[in-house]
From TrEMBL, chain A:
The keyword Lipid biosynthesis is assigned to this record: no
Keyword Glycoprotein: no
TM segment ranges: 40-60, 72-97, 103-125, 137-164, 176-197
Main location class: membrane
Single GO cellular component term: plasma membrane
Keywords: Cell membrane, Membrane, Transmembrane, Transmembrane helix, Transport
Subcellular location(s) per record: Cell membrane
Protein name, entry field: ABC-type Co2+ transport system, permease component
Highest taxon listed in the record's lineage: Bacteria
Membrane topology: Multi-pass membrane protein
Lineage, highest ranks first: Bacteria, Bacillati, Bacillota, Bacilli, Bacillales
TrEMBL record, chain B:
Protein name: PDGLE domain-containing protein
Organism: Thermobacillus xylanilyticus
Bilayer-spanning residue ranges: 81-102
Primary location recorded for the protein, binned into one broad class: membrane
Gene expressing this chain: txxe 1720
Annotated compartments: Cell membrane
Keywords of this entry: Cell membrane, Membrane, Transmembrane, Transmembrane helix
Domain PDGLE: 14-102
Pfam families recorded: PDGLE
Length: 211, 105
């Protein structure tokens, strides 16, 4: 789901470039306190894994394919701010080195996948753990990943509509429909990776202090 | 009321992170040439709703467009090598940037 150059109108790409740069800059600032030095090697490796996994398009129904996004996985492991930084770095490398995703669309892609994707994924994961009282992490991870890619696709649909590429009434259901399917793959990969890369610890926590 | 709740912490197991590193290199270097070439969700929507033609290149400075290293006769090698380079660049860039950013302690 990388918006290429040309899909967005000049007004939209100018606005999203400014907003995307501001959001990425703010995420960098928040990462100073959100991430600790011992987490750095793991976060760098997770970013490389997300890049590699994004290359592996898998076929879904109707002659279409999808690929892993990774925003929810990054947010589950390192929190939403560090995830936004990791995902922005992936998008920058893809656009600059591989011509995947436009340069004028970089801000839009950062807003949709790095910001919306990471925060939607983190929010659903935390809410899911709370709701399930910390049990069934797999269900929380799956839901987080599904919602995160679907939310990102809604963001892209909105920007396409604002750009006059297609009316929202057509773009939104189309983007939502395909990404609801791709989201199943996203959910399965995120579920497996999050289960493998986290450890369960039972601790005596006061009500509401679960974080 | 206090209750026991499980928490999920990122693993510190070196073995698990080493497995992820191997998986990353295998995905980028070996599996990537065999990824599906079908249009992805957004491309499919662009086709169906008739705005695929809006795509316009505004630059040509990417060294490996389309995830291929030019000048190698085998497609699998072109793509696999591009994937490996990308994964290594990704890890080095993030390691350097995050090490400069993250809090001490």
């Amino acid at each position: 789901m990388h918006i290429p150059d040309g899909y967005l109108s000049m007004e939209v790409w100018t606005a999203t470039t400014v907003a995307g740069a501001a959001a990425a800059g703010y995420a960098l600032r928040r990462t100073r306190t959100a991430l600790a030095q011992p987490q750095v090697p793991a976060a760098a490796l997770a970013g490389a894994f997300i890049f590699a996994a994004q290359m592996l398009n898998f076929p879904i129904a109707g002659g279409t394919s999808g690929h892993f996004l990774g925003s929810a996985l990054a947010a589950i492991l390192f929190g939403p701010w560090a995830a936004a930084v990791i995902m922005s770095a992936v998008l920058i490398i893809q656009a600059v080195l591989f011509h995947d995703g436009g340069i004028t669309a970089l801000g839009a892609n950062i807003l949709c996948t790095a910001i919306i994707g990471s925060f939607a994924g983190y929010g659903v994961y935390q809410a899911g753990l709370r709701l399930l009282k910390g049990r069934l992490q797999a269900a929380a991870s799956f839901a987080a990943a599904w919602v995160s890619i679907v939310a990102a696709s809604c963001g892209v649909a909105l920007l396409l509509a604002l750009s006059g590429a297609a009316p929202l009434s057509a773009a939104l259901p189309a983007m939502l429909g395909w990404h609801a399917l791709i989201g199943i793959g996203e959910g399965l990969i995120t579920m497996a990776a999050a289960a493998y890369l986290t450890e369960r610890r039972t601790s005596l926590a006061p009500e509401g202090a679960f974080a | 009321m206090n209750e026991r709740r499980p928490e999920y912490k990122v693993t510190g197991s070196r073995r698990k992170w080493a497995v992820l590193a191997v998986l990353t290199l295998a995905a980028a270097g070996l599996a990537s040439p065999w990824a599906s070439g079908r249009p992805d969700g957004l491309e499919r929507v662009a086709e169906d709703l008739g705005f695929l033609g809006r795509e316009a290149a505004v630059h040509s400075f990417s060294p490996m467009p389309g995830y291929e290293v030019a000048g190698i006769p085998w497609e699998a090698v072109r793509t696999g090598l591009a994937g490996l380079i990308g994964a290594v660049v990704m890890a080095v860039l993030l390691w350097t940037a995050l090490r400069a950013l993250a809090r001490r302690r």
